[in-house]
Amino acid sequence: MSPLVLIASIMLIINHQQTVTGYELACGLQFISITPQQRCTLRNATQYDLDSFGVAGIPDGALLEILNPEFNRFDEGAFLVVQKARNLTFSKGLVKSVEFQSSTLVSLKVLNSWLVRFEVVEEDNFSLKTLSIRSDKYRIISPTIRYLKSLEELTFQKCSLEFIDFEPFTDMEKLRLLDLSWNRIHSVRIDPTMPLAALKLLDISYNKLTAMQNFPGAFPALKVVTLKRNSWYCDWVGEARGNIWNGGITVMGAESFCGERDGMTNNGGLCCKERPKHVDVVHGVIHEILSAIHAPAQNNTQRLVYVLDSEDSTNPSVLIYNSV
């Protein structure tokens, strides 16, 4: 018997399926490495099914995909139901809110499931290594994400993020990959005194950024960055290019043609535009305001952050808010 026939025979013997009214669980061996792994698919589960669905149906260390679920909320109790799984993926369907707590999961992905809210129970988690969220309903990253202490890969792709504060990521001492591509990000906050020391790959392409302060200085280990398809100012591109070169960083995805976007020119592989003069004036005013506000705030009870939204070059808006 050939090896392929033997493997097919084993998969036919091992594969099993459990069908209950309303949902279906199917498991089988998956030969993706030297050691075969159990892959299970749970289809069409609802919030009410979780109470009747026992942990006995999931093999230890399984790669579990929950396909087309209907969960308004997936919380600590729900994670107990799937605690035997090593990897958990929600695909399609509806998962509006996730409150994460698990000491067994290594990978969690929530993909195209209408996710609006993702929180982490406020206690340090050292098991999860990979988190991936893809939902155009997801707009704000909760600061509770800082409790994922051992996270190595973090992806928020094709969401609706507009502002990113990198500060919660600095608690992730092993974070080496951060993917923020295909969002609506126009502003970021990067504190140079709190670097992402382990970050090696950063993808912030397909957003609305015009500049990033403290880049790449706040990422001392950065090796690869993707910056294309933003609204960069040409003066920022010129400064960033020198810093990228000096840091030995590889820029992926060079742009060769910018003509389809009004006012954009190619500057060494990145499309960019000239910075409107009024933006420089506004920045100066903002710094004066912040200095005046900060002067009497000696007790450090709050940290003030400003966001300059210059997408509309004729009418920039300034938002000053308390980030604590």
Notes on the protein architecture:
The chain is an alpha/beta fold and 324 residues long. 16% of the residues lie in helices and 31% in strands. The chain is built from five helices and 21 strands. Strands 1-2-3-4-6-8-10-11-13-15-16-17 form a twelve-stranded mixed sheet. Strand 1 and strand 2 form a beta hairpin. The chain is elongated. It starts with a helix and ends with a strand. Mean pLDDT is 82; it is low at 1-16 and 294-324.
The helix tally amounts to 5
Taking the sheet with the most strands, its summary is: 12 strands, mixed
Shape: elongated
Give the proportion of residues in helices.
10-25%
How much of the sequence is in beta strands? Answer: 25-35%
How many individual β-strands? 21
Radius of gyration: 23 Å
Task: Give, in spatial order, the strands making up the sheet with the most strands.
Answer: 1-2-3-4-6-8-10-11-13-15-16-17
Structural class: alpha/beta
Q: What order do the helices and strands follow?
A: HEEEHEEHEEEEEEEEEEEHEEEHEE
